[in-house]
Structure formats: structure tokens, C-alpha cells
Amino acid sequence: MSRDELLQLITGARNSDEAAAKELVERLYPVVIRIVRNHLPRRESEEDLTQEIFLKLFAKLHQYRADMPFEHWVSRISVNTCIDHLRKQRNRPEYRWSDFSHHQQAILDNLKNNATEPPQQSPEESRELLDRLLLTLKPHERLIVQWLYLQEKSVAEICDLTGWKASKVKVTAFRARQKLMATVKRLDK
User: Fold this and answer.
1) End of a domain among 38, 57, 91?
2) How far apart, in whole angstroms, are the C-alpha atoms of residue 44 and residue 98?
3) For position 38, which CATH number holds?
4) What is the pLDDT of residues 92-115, one digit of tens each?
5) How far apart are CA 168 and CA 173, in angstroms?
6) Does pTM surpass 0.90?
7) pLDDT digits (tens, 9 = 90+) for 32-58
8) Is 54 in a helix, a strand, or coil?
9) 73 and 128, same structural domain?
10) Chain segment 123-145, per-residue pLDDT in tens
11) Domains: count for the chain
């Protein structure tokens, strides 16, 4: 495709020309799908991620400057979108039932059924499961849960460490517990 044809398509897409936008997607799809496949986050649908990239492309099309190659601009947006998804997954992982060992699944079953007696499992398995579940929380929530429940610090001690008021510590702990239970309940067999 010549540079003039490409600029015509870009102009048409900017002016809401559906045919030009469709042509642009067809021409860019091989570039975008190659990048997505090379940077695909775990458990992410390549078609969903590709669609998100195209949504961003069309939303930012007005920002494209003709003094740079269009494919480079598309590649940059594609790679950055993939990196954002990888970062999100690293910071707040999402788990599935099959990600856990049989012992950990027994513990989770027990939690899902609101049992009061913990199953007889090794402390290492329980600790590993807890660490994995804590990764689904935001860093400040994870810290409060660890201090309050694992290190058994008082609310007053946590207030001294964080500079927060007691009500904020309690609310953060409550919300973190709710998020942890929601994560456990979302796990499907």
C-alpha cells in the first residue's frame, strides 16, 4: 500500500468513513495479531486483546502525525497494550481452580462451604495458598491483612505504622477480607 493510500484511509477513518476504517483494520490486522501473539498475557484471548488494540487505535487516530511511519505507531500502541495487560496480571493475578494443588483445592472447598473447621493440610500448603490469594489484593490491602491477621498487630500499632486513622484500617481490612472471599467464591471447578 502506498503512503498516499494509507493517508487517505487514515483521513477517511478520522472522518467516520466505515469503509475506510474496515480497510484499515484489514490491512493492519496481520501486524497487530503478530504482536499480540508474541506478547500475549496468560489466559488472555488474542481476539479480545486485538479488538482492544483496534479500539485504542481508532480512539487515538487523531494523535497520529504523518511524519512517522504508521505501522510503527500501530506497533507502539499494540505493544503498550499488551504490556499493560501483562503488568495488570502480574500485579493482580487471577486464578482458576486448576491452578491449585489437590490439598489447596480441599482448603478452598472448605472456605467456599463456610466450614469452621479447617481441613487437615500441611501448613506449607496453606501458607502457599494464602500467599497466592493475597496477591489478588492491592498492595496496601495486602499489607493491612498481613499485619492484622498474620503478624497479629493491633489496629493502634497499624495506625502508628501507616499514619491512618483506626476507621480506615478497619475498613481496609474488612474490604480486603470481602475481596478474598469473593476471589475464593469465583473459583470454578
Assistant:
1) 91
2) 16
3) 1.10.1740.10
4) 556 665 566 666 666 666 666 665
5) 8
6) no
7) 988 888 776 555 678 888 999 999 999
8) helix
9) no
10) 676 677 777 778 788 888 888 88
11) 2
H helices of the chain, in order, are 3-14, 18-39, 46-60, 70-91, 102-112, 123-134, 139-145, 155-162, 166-186
The three-point CA angle 124-125-129 to 5° equals 115
Residue with the three cell numbers 502506498: 2
| The three cell numbers locating residue 105 | 483445592
For residue 152, give the CATH number of its domain: 1.20.140.160
Structural domain ending residue among the three candidates 42, 64, 91: 91
Domain that holds residue 119: 97-186
Please name the amino acid found at residue 142. R
Q: Which amino acid is at 147?
A: W
Do 78 and 54 fall within a single domain?
Answer: yes
User: What confidence tier does 167 reach under pLDDT thresholds 50, 70, 90?
Assistant: very high
Q: What's the mean per-residue pLDDT of the chain?
A: 79
Q: Which of helix, strand or coil describes residue 29?
A: helix
Cell 493440610 found at = 121
Output the CA–CA distances (angstroms, integers) from residue 26 to 8, 70, 122, 124, in the order listed: 15, 14, 54, 52
86 and 108 housed in the same domain: no
What is d(CA 92, CA 132) in angstroms, rounded to the nearest whole number?
10
Judged by DSSP in three states, 113 sits in coil
Q: Does residue 122 surpass a pLDDT of 90?
A: no
